[in-house]
Write a structure and sequence with these properties.
Blueprint (H helix, E strand, L loop, with lengths): L4 E3 L7 E3 L1 H9 L3 H17 L3 H15 L3 H16 L3 H10 L2 H5 L2 H13 L3 H12 L8 H17 L4 H14 L5 H18 L2 H17 L6 H14 L3 H14 L12 H13 L3 H18 L2 H17 L3 H17 L6 H13 L3 H11 L12 H14 L2 H18 L2 H17 L3 H15 L6 H4 L3 H6 L8 H12 L11 H7 L9 H11 L4 H8 L3 H15 L4 H10 L4
Antiparallel strand pairs: 1-2
Helix pairs in contact: 2-3, 3-4, 4-5, 4-7, 5-7, 7-8, 7-9, 8-9, 9-10, 9-11, 10-11, 11-12, 12-13, 13-14, 13-15, 14-15, 15-16, 15-17, 16-17, 17-18, 17-19, 18-19, 19-20, 19-21, 21-22, 21-23, 22-23, 23-24, 29-31, 29-32, 30-31, 31-32
């Protein structure tokens, strides 16, 4: 009669009780009946290969019976598949439901818990569970379990301990044990190995390893680990000065993560952002911003701190080059905030990018405070992780006129970058050498470094590296035109047709910000958004009007609320009018 039950299919096979009737039935059960029914349900769902339902009932039974063995067994059985599907939140929820002692006391569960934490950037806490898992190793531990744990330890050795030799050793041991059935973990072991190679050896070793990681991930059909393999391969190729191939890797990967309806999936957000950086390097700022804006929007959909941090940070130089100084600084502020919440990457690189912007704006005091806080000095020995900071500080030393000391330091940086195959950084080092030598009147050295810079840049169209440095570099380019005539001509043409330099601190925009009666003034973009809100436009309409993502509009609105100390749109408009901002 269709009373009390609801059919779920057309085959008269699946039904459920009406929800109110089900609630009524449950309150008639005593605890023993509940335990028995949850246990039966868990076993039935397990037999039907419905793991999530089985675990739900197994956990319910365990909570009533204080017997967690069956729930732990079921979670252990499906944890591998759950991670491979990228369902980290689901696995984390199941592990949270187990007693802490049950997780730490089981080698497999402790290892999986550590992986979930590591993927979420909580590397220090992941290390605690990794050590708990190691304590349970013995001769009877299966090779697969041992390999998965070795891979984890190698990963943490890179990102938590910065012990790269240990990471290489652990990843190598893991790869020797990992067969085709555990190919997903081969990708992770190769990633840990490549990261260590990149930071300690010639970067070409890391490229070979990353190509193998990418090939393995592709054979698996993608999954959770393909996107990082593609991204880091593109990043490393770019460092090696292979901009064109890096862009091709990004483009192919983005197409891989595009569904049948033509929609790019959120996991491709950072790939789009990296592609935007590569367009920026070639001087195509319009294409760069198109990719970067899409990358930010997709990364925000992932709701993970590290992708958002990178996407916003990558966008800042292009925003600055387009004359959107306030937006560039705001992107960096938010990037740094997200970086502090994540754990896999050092958010200090965002401050280095900001220092470069502040230096271009002439705010030498800000740059000095940054350098002091970062502990950077002109006599430091080069270190891979700090190269971006060194190059910004070298520009700062140029401003200060520390030319003899700077040239000696640039020699050390040049030797380091050359030995490691870090061509992109080597290009900038040569350009900085040109400026320093020219200012000291050493024209022979200036010409030689400029010729080397052109030879490095021309095959891969690294135009922006020249356009963003001292104008004197461009003035000297005709002297080395013979090295790459077409490239130099295009470079000089781009310089002649480039927009005016970005505004300096005492422009009209800066004066407008300073006049605001707020502790933290609204940026130009925030004022623009606020004016459109006052005009009655929705977030979607504002996004369309400004050619930005809806998520970006929401982010601006949250900043506006905070700065005006209000909670809704109408209050923001009223407060802005009271303050004379509208």
């Amino acid at each position: 009669a269709n009373l009390f039950v609801v059919p779920l299919d057309n085959r008269r096979q699946w039904y459920r009780y009406h929800r109110l009737f089900a609630e009524f039935l449950r309150i008639t059960l005593d605890p023993e009946e509940q335990k028995a029914l949850h246990r039966r349900a868990a076993r039935w769902y397990e037999d039907e290969k419905l793991a999530s339902r089985a675990i739900h009932h197994a956990l319910a039974h365990a909570g009533l019976a204080d017997d967690w063995g069956d729930a732990a067994r079921l979670i252990r059985l499906v944890a591998e598949e759950t991670i491979q599907k990228g369902e980290l939140l689901t696995l984390n929820k199941w592990l949270d439901a187990l007693p802490e002692a049950s997780v730490r006391g089981d080698l497999s569960l402790a290892t999986y818990r550590a992986w979930v934490l590591a993927f979420n950037g909580q590397v220090d806490k992941a290390g605690e569970y990794a050590r708990a898992a190691v304590a349970h190793l013995d001769r009877r531990t299966p090779a697969a379990e041992r390999a998965r744990l070795l891979t984890l330890r190698g990963f943490l050795a890179v990102f938590a301990d910065h012990d790269y030799e240990a990471a290489l050793s652990l990843a190598g041991e893991a790869l020797a044990l990992l067969d085709e059935d555990l190919a997903y973990w081969r990708v992770m072991a190769l990633w840990a190995m490549a990261e260590s190679q990149e930071r300690t050896r010639d970067v070409t070793e890391a490229i070979v390893t990353l190509r193998e990681a990418r090939r393995t991930a592709r054979l698996l059909g993608g999954g959770l680990f393909l996107a990082p393999a593609e991204l880091f391969l593109a990043t490393t190729l770019h460092l090696h000065g292979e901009r064109r191939e890096a862009a091709a890797v990004c483009q192919e990967a983005i197409e891989w993560y595009t569904d049948t309806a033509g929609r790019t999936l959120p996991v491709a957000g950072m790939l789009l952002s990296r592609l935007g950086v590569l367009h920026h390097e070639a001087g195509d700022l319009a294409a760069a911003w198109s990719c970067l804006e899409r990358g930010i929007a997709l990364s925000e959909q992932l709701a993970m701190d590290s992708p958002i941090m990178y996407s916003l940070g990558f966008a800042a130089p292009t925003l600055y080059a387009l004359g959107r100084v306030d937006d560039a600084l705001e992107a960096l502020r938010q990037a740094h905030q997200h970086g502090q919440q994540g754990g896999l990457a050092d958010a200090g690189w965002c401050l280095a990018v900001e220092a470069n912007v502040r230096l271009a704006l002439g705010d030498l005091a800000w740059v000095q405070r940054w350098a002091d806080a970062a502990g950077i000095s002109i006599d430091q020995e080069p270190h891979y992780l700090h190269m971006d900071q060194y190059l910004v500080y070298a520009r700062f030393c140029l401003r200060q006129g520390k030319l003899p000391q700077l040239r000696l330091w640039l020699d050390r940086l040049e030797s380091f970058a050359h030995a490691r195959g870090l061509v992109r950084w080597l290009l900038t080092i040569h350009i900085l050498h040109v400026i320093a030598a020219d200012r000291e009147g050493d024209s022979a050295a200036a010409h030689e470094h400029l010729a080397q810079a052109v030879r490095l840049a021309a095959p891969e169209d690294y135009l922006q590296a020249f356009l963003e440095e001292d104008a004197r570099v461009l003035a000297l380019l005709p002297l080395v035109r013979h090295e790459a005539p077409d490239f130099v001509d295009r470079l000089l043409g781009a310089a002649a047709g480039s927009p005016a330099p970005a505004p300096q601190p005492q422009t009209a925009a800066a004066a407008r910000r300073a006049a605001q009666p707020l502790i933290e003034p609204l940026s130009e973009r925030e004022l623009e958004v606020l004016a459109l809100v006052a005009a009655g436009l929705s977030n979607r309409e504002i996004a369309d009007r400004l050619f930005i993502a809806v998520g970006t509009v929401k982010r601006h609105m949250n900043n506006i609320y905070g700065k005006l100390q209000v909670r809704r749109r109408t209050e923001a408009v009223a407060r802005a009018r009271d303050l004379g901002l509208l």
